[in-house]
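Name: HD/PDEase domain-containing protein
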Amino acid sequence: MGSFIIRDVIHGDIEFDDNIKQILNCPEFQRLHRIHQLSCEYLVFPTATHTRFSHSIGTYHVMKKLIEHFTVKLEEKGYKVKKEDKQLAYVAALLHDIGHGAFSHTFEKIFSLKSHEAWTMSIIKDKNTHIHKKIIKLYGKAFLQKLIDVMSKSYKNQESSNIFSIIATLVSSQTDADRMDYLLRDSYFTSVTNGRYDIERLIKSFGVTQINSELRIYINEKYMSTLEEYVLARYFMHKEVYQHTTKRHMEICLCLIFKRVKEILESKTKIFCDDALKNLILKKNITVSDYLKTDDSYFMYHIMAWTKSKDDILVFLCNCFLNREQFDIEVSYDKDMLKDKINKLLKKHNKQEIKDLNNEYFYIETQKQVNLYVSSTENIWIKSKDDDKLYDLSQKSLIINRENAIKDYSSKNIFISGTLFKIIYGIDLKL
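Structure predicted for HD/PDEase domain-containing protein:
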């Protein structure tokens, strides 16, 4: 059969062969249509309604460009990139986010379960999923195991471990296909223009060398400005989008909703809740089948239903989230001072004093912490034009130097809800 094309706003025409098209059509992959890429970011940036589906096919497209580039570079080093190696890279890129839960990363904060990467592995390994069956049918069992090895970076015993290491780096690293797509995509849909960078030139900048029998990806120093543009784009997107105060506010509100539902369920009070969601909230045995039910629509249906609950705290929190109502009082002074003021008020009305504000429903604290570049866990290597040696980015960049790289941008905001305080304690909050 011929190729299949999807028109994408970021990359233009994205072409898929018939095998990839069949994977796209699996229910587990189609589910990504129903998960926002940026959680509840649309409450801040109204056009940020793009999905994990569009990001995943974008990542696949970027991976194809990277593999095309590295095939030439590796063959110059005497390494043959086989058709199966390319297919592994494409499928790994396509499926890298298949394990995301509802509201993307917020899901992990709410339920404190295993990471979306771990769920991705579970979905691919589960013999009952369409994805698992389709991969075996199209590519074979050996391919499936190699895919798992590449995505989990456990490829040391593979015959082509050097090629595998390159693929794994392109799937997950500081300069991977995932980041290359989401920075451009998220920048476009939020209209935050300083998240843009020159992807074609960045791909062109990559080289590969062999150090102690291992292959290592680097960037030629002459393309330093292109790399700096990319790193700065990531920094500004975290500062202005991913860690936006209002977005964090709404995420915490979402977490408080499910915290309250958990308390209601544990008290045996009757409340509407699907069995799969109940198992998630109470941290009972969660099957892959149950997990795959979780998408944004599924959660929103429950949140809307809970606005009719008999629990006033839950109703208030659900309405706050649905209607983008932030807690009404922003506190400009110290958290301990706030607690003292509130406890004096509670004591005056013969109410039990608060021990920890973080456990209170009327209290929200948003924090923003952004690194420009951190090399302690993973390096971006630069090939010097002077001596052909590899150096960490922070050693060669005048912008992203060691001094700047270890500095964090941080801020904290405290909000409280006078309305919710009165619902809980029956007292008007006057600070």
